[in-house]
Fold this protein.
Amino acid sequence: MNALLWGVLPYVAFVLLVAGTIWRFRYDKFGWTTRSSQIYESKLLNIASPVFHYGILFVLVGHLVGLFVPESWTDDIGLNEHTYHLLSLYGGTAAGVLALAGIGLLVYRRRTKAPVFRATTANDKLMYLVLVAALVLGMVAKLMHVSGEGYNYRETIAPWSRSLFILQPKTELMAGVPVMYQIHAVVGMVLIAMVPFTRLVHMFSAPVQYLFRPYVVYRTRDPEQLGVRPERRGWERTGV
Amino acid sequence: MPRGEATIGRVMAQIAMVMNLDKCIGCHTCSVTCKQAWTNRTGMEYVWFNNVETRPGQGYPRRYEDQERWRGGWELNKRGALKLKAGGRFRKLAGIFSNPVLPEIKDYYEPWTYDYQNLTDAPLGDDFPVAQPLSQITGKPMKIEWSSNWDDSLAGAPEHGDLDPMVAKVREQAAEKVKFAFEQTFMFFLPRICEHCLNPSCVASCPSGAMYKRAEDGIVLVDQDQCRGWRMCVTGCPYKKVYFNHRTGKAEKCHFCYPRVEVGLPTVCSETCVGRLRYLGVMLYDADKVTAAASVKDEKALYEAQLGVFLDPEDPGVQRAAEEAGIAYDWIEAARRSPVHALISKYRVALPLHPEYRTMPMVWYIPPLSPVVDALAETGFDGEEAGNLFGAIDTLRIPLEYLAELFTAGDVGPVRASLEKLAAMRSHMRAINLGDQPDPSVAASVGMEATEIEAMYRLLAIAKYEERYVIPTAAVGDAARLEETALPAELPDSCSLDFPGGPGMGGDGPFGQDSGRRHLPLVSVENFHVLAKRQTADEENELKELPP
C-alpha cells in the first residue's frame, strides 16, 4: 500500500499530466478554453474569480516553496523552524482562506444562477469536488497541527517529493506522516492527474507572451490551405 | 491625395465596404441572411454579426457607444501615444481572472424560442394552448423585454430615445436639435458589421494572440484553435462586434464572409441587400502611416488623417510600390476600379463610423439625405431644387450635429460637404431628367464637374452587380505565383506538387516527365507547348528548334 500510494501514484499522476496535456494540445485545441460563464453573470464573478485565482496562486507558490526548498537552505539564511512554521501557518492559511472563500462564492454562483448551472457539465462537477476537497483537506491538515512547532513536513513529505525526481522515491518517509496530510497528498495527486482532462487545463495557457508581442498581429493565408481542409475535432460536419 | 510627394511605405490591400444609408429601408434582410449563414447555432443565439440599428437609438448591445462605460477602442496617453482604453498589457494580465467591463447577455438581449410543442401536446381544455417564450439561456419560461432591434423605427423612442449616447452628446451642444415628440422626430437606419479596422483594438487586446488581421485582404479573424476565451477582445472592440460564444467558450466575429470573398463573391449581407446599398472593393493603404494617423491629437482630424493613409491606385508610384509589396496585378487593377475607393477618396461622400475610437474603421457610410428631401417636399417646396436643398441641410430634422457625432467625431464640415454633394447630384440629375440644361454652378458649388457628378450618380443609383462589387479573388492573387512554382529554381520552395499526398512528391511520375497524376495545369503555357511538341514530334530535327 505504502509503495503504491507514494511510489506509484505520483508517477501515474505525472505521466497523466504530461501525456494528457500533450494529447489535449494535439487533438483538442478547439476545446482548450477557460469556458468562462461571465457573460451570464458578472457581478459575483468579478469578486469571486480574482479572489479565488490569486488565492490559489499563492497556495501554489506556498507548496512549491514548502516542498522544493530544503530545510537546510532556510536554516542557512537564519530562518529557524519556529519562524518558518509561523510564516507557513499564517501565509498558507491566508492564501487558503482566500482560495476557499473564492471558490465557495463561485460554487454558490454556479448553483444559484440558472444559466451558469445549466452550462455546468458532469466533468466540471467532478473537478469542483476534487478541487474543493484538496483545498479543505489541506487547510484541515495544517490547522490540526498548529500547536507548538506544528507538524514539520519538511523532514518527511518534502524530501519524499524531491526524491521522486531522482526516480528513487523514499516511500518509507511517508509512512509516519499524519493521516490528514496523507489524504491531502493523495487527493492532490488525483487533482494533478485530472488537470489536462478538465477545464483546469486553461492554467497552461497563461498568456505571458502578450507582454512581448506587437499589438496588432498580421498573418498570411496558409498557401497550402486554399481548398477545404480535413475535418478536425469540434469542426465535424453536422447533419446531412 | 498628393501624387508621388511623400515616400510610400509598406503598401497593403484591404477589402472594404461602403454603405449608402439613403437607400436603407431597415428591412433586416442582411441581418437575417447573415444569421442564417453564420450564427444559426447554439451558443450564438444572441449574436448578430450584421445588425441594423435605428438611429437615434441605443444600438446593439445597448448603449455600446458609451466608451466611458465599456472602455472600447484606443485613447491617447499623456505622451500622445496610443493606448488601449481598457488598459495596457500589464493591466490586462493582472485583471485576467475577470473582465469588469464585459457586457452581459442582458446588455445584448436574452435570446428565446417558443414552446411550440405545447401547441400540439396540450391536453384538451377550454382554452387555446399557447406557445410561451422560453429562454435559450436558462431554458425556463421568460418575459421578453428586449432584443437586438427592440427600438426599431423609433419604437419606444419617447421613453428610451434619450439613452442614445450620441443624442446625449448632441444635446450638450445644441439643446433644441434632437426631439422625440411625434411629428418632430427623425430617424434613419444604420446597418453595422465588423469594421475590419486598420488599427484593430480587438486584435491588440487579445492576450493569446489568436486574433489577427489577414495580410492579403485585411480581414480580421479569430483563430478558433488559439482562442482561450479571455474575453478581452469583446471589451476591446468599441463597436462591440466581437462576440463570446457561450457554448464553445471562444470569441467569434464577422469574418467578412471570407470564404465567399476569396472566390470573388460579395458578402452575404451585400449579396442579399434589397436596397443594393452596399459596395465592396479594394482600398490600398500605407501600413506604415496607420499608427501616426490614429494618434492624431484632434479627434476631428482623424477622418482626414485616415484619408491620408489611403493610397491613390492611379498613381504610378503607388502601383510600383504595391507591386514591390507583393500585391498581385489583379488586385491593383481592382483597386483602380474600386467603387469603395471612388466613394471614399475620389468623391469623398462616404464617412467612417466613429473615427474617434482611433481604430481606423474600414466600413464607411454615405450619410442619409433622403429624409431631407422628403421633409422639404412635405412643406410644399420642390425637394430637389438646389437652392431649397442646400438651405435645408442646415435645418435638417436629422441634425447635422447628430450625423457628425456618428461619422466625424462631431465635426459637421465633412458631413455637410457630403450631403451637399448628394444634393447637388439630385439637382443636376433632375435637370437632365426633365430635359433642362443642368446649371453648371450647382456642380461647381460643391467642387465637382458635371461629368464627375454623373459618374457618381451612376455609381450611387444604377451601378450593376459588377460595378458595386469589385472583388479580386484570392486564387487570382495566388495564381501567378502558383504557375511559376511549377518551374524549378524559380522559387526556393520548389515544386508546388510536392506537398504531402500531392501528385508531385518530388520529380517526375513513373513514366517520365508528363506522367503521373496532375490536378491542375500548373505549368506556364510556353512550357506546355514545348512539352507537347517534344512528345508529338515526328522528326528529331523539329526538336532541335525547340528551346531546351
